[in-house]
């Protein structure tokens, strides 16, 4: 068997995607673009998403088996704002940490490998930091320091702006109702700085600090790092935001300049990748067909402009909510298509067509609107299709994405299920005509004084631009 660490004719990229389909698709899309420009790409994923990686022509590395993954995402507590964050860090990030770190140990070739890290990938951060620390000790000479730093290059990829902190205009991490509305309030700089500090020392460092600092000490004798998610978790080499600057202008303004050791944020735009090929137009059919179920990949495009409801690729449940939506839409003469990959065809209703996973980029232009939980992939797809969206956030970045969609007039945020009827009515009214996306949101961010070549680069597809920037780390 050949040594995976032997010098190779192709540079190597090791990417991580420790989450569900919404985490996997953009990282695989970047890997596909890197592969096209000559990289050998390996992606660490949960076992249910191996096919997504391999169908893109990339190498899959399983770090979480199917049984463990489904056990975690099927827990009710996983989909709640307070307990969800703890579950993500303990059940996903921590279980991902050691297997991915061991995989990097096996596959890393100095000077020929770039690491591409998902926000929950602390293994790549530890590997890069300790590699540089060990190499730097060889010589205190400045040029040697630079050579050591270039031996292991790391790109931190942020899928959404929610996890980047802002003490004046903080991303919304909790429900916008009741007492949680007062957590991280806009404009309260000192209070929010204290909240971030307490969250670090009382929760985040306790959950992830142990394994991270143990490896840092074992590998390079480094002293414990406190407040890991304040600055340490952003790469000193490169930080990419997979969203346009207009979607989070305050975040871009703060992080687009170098701060401490972290590299400046570069927003490349929404990746807009569904991870599948085009729908066969020959199977396009107009009937709504309540209760109809078709196998994934063979779903016919709708012709009656239904309301699309998706409850997430890994989330289970929500049947009662979907039935309520179907009843409300039926009285308005609008059909409902329920996209539920975890349970396609699980509900039979005269006004519901059940489907499995479908490519939103191809489906949304045929829909009146979409109801979803606010994942960044679905949110960005609806914006791109100029289709109004109703977001019912549950946890993670969903509250922040919902707030931004509502702020820009691109949809409605459902704060309580008691307001579902009025929210559906508002959504259907917005869907009577194609959504009028403000011109400023469609315009590519092009600062004054940039060259024509740079302006052209800014207009290229987001994943292609991300791949080009990542590849530049080895040039």
UniProtKB/TrEMBL annotation:
Q: Which domain of life is it from?
A: Bacteria
Query: What Pfam families does this protein's entry cite?
Result: EryCIII-like_C
Give GO MF terms, alphabetically: glycosyltransferase activity
Alphabetical keyword list:
Glycosyltransferase, Transferase
**What InterPro entries does the entry give?**
EryCIII-like_C, Glycosyltransferase_28
Q: Where is this region: Disordered?
A: 279-298
Supply the name of the protein. Rhamnosyltransferase subunit B
Which SUPFAM superfamilies does the UniProt entry name for this protein?
Answer: UDP-Glycosyltransferase/glycogen phosphorylase
Could you tell me the EC number(s) of this protein?
2.4.1.-
Which major enzyme category is it? Answer: transferase
In this chain the Erythromycin biosynthesis protein CIII-like C-terminal domain maps to 348-428
Origin species, per record, is Aporhodopirellula rubra
């Amino acid at each position: 068997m050949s040594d995976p660490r032997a010098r190779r004719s192709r540079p190597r990229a090791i990417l991580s995607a420790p989450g569900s389909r919404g985490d996997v698709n953009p990282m695989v899309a970047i890997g596909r673009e890197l592969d096209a420009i000559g990289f050998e790409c390996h992606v660490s994923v949960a076992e249910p998403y191996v096919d997504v990686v391999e169908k893109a022509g990339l190498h899959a590395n399983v770090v979480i088996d199917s049984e463990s993954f489904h056990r975690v995402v099927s827990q009710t507590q996983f989909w709640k704002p307070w307990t969800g964050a703890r579950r993500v860090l303990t059940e996903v990030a921590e279980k991902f940490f050691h297997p991915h770190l061991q995989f990097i140990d096996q596959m890393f070739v100095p000077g020929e490998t770039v690491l591409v890290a998902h926000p929950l990938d602390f293994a790549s951060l530890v590997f890069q930091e300790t590699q540089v620390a060990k190499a730097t000790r060889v010589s205190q000479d400045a040029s040697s320091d630079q050579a050591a730093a270039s031996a292991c290059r790391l790109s931190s990829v942020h899928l959404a702006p929610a996890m980047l902190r802002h003490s004046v205009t903080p991303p919304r991490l909790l429900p916008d109702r009741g007492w949680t509305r007062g957590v991280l309030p806009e404009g309260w700089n000192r209070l929010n700085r204290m909240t971030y500090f307490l969250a670090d020392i009382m929760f985040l460092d306790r959950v992830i600090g142990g394994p991270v600092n143990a490896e840092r000490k074992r590998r390079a004798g480094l002293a414990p790092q406190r407040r890991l998610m304040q600055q340490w978790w952003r790469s000193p080499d490169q930080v990419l935001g997979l969203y346009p600057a207009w979607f989070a202008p305050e975040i871009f303004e703060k992080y687009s300049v170098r701060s401490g050791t972290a590299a400046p944020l570069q927003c490349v735009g929404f990746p807009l990748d569904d991870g599948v090929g085009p729908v066969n137009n020959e199977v396009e059919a107009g009937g709504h067909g309540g209760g109809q179920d078709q196998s994934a990949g063979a779903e016919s495009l709708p012709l009656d402009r239904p309301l699309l409801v998706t409850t997430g690729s890994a989330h289970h449940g929500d049947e009662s909510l979907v039935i309520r939506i179907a009843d409300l839409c039926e009285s308005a003469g609008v059909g409902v298509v329920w996209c539920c990959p975890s349970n396609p065809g699980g509900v039979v209703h005269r006004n519901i067509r059940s489907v499995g996973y479908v490519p939103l980029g191809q489906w949304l232009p045929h829909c009146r609107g979409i109801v979803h939980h606010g994942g960044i992939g679905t949110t960005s797809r609806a914006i791109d299709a100029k289709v109004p969206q109703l977001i019912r956030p549950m946890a993670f970045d969903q509250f922040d994405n919902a707030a931004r969609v509502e702020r820009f007039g691109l949809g409605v945020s459902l704060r309580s299920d008691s307001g579902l009827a009025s929210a559906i009515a508002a959504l259907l009214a917005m869907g009577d005509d194609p959504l009028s996306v403000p011109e400023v949101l469609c315009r590519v961010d092009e600062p004054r004084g940039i060259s024509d070549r740079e302006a052209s680069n800014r207009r290229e597809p987001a994943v292609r631009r991300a791949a080009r920037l990542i590849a530049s780390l080895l040039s």
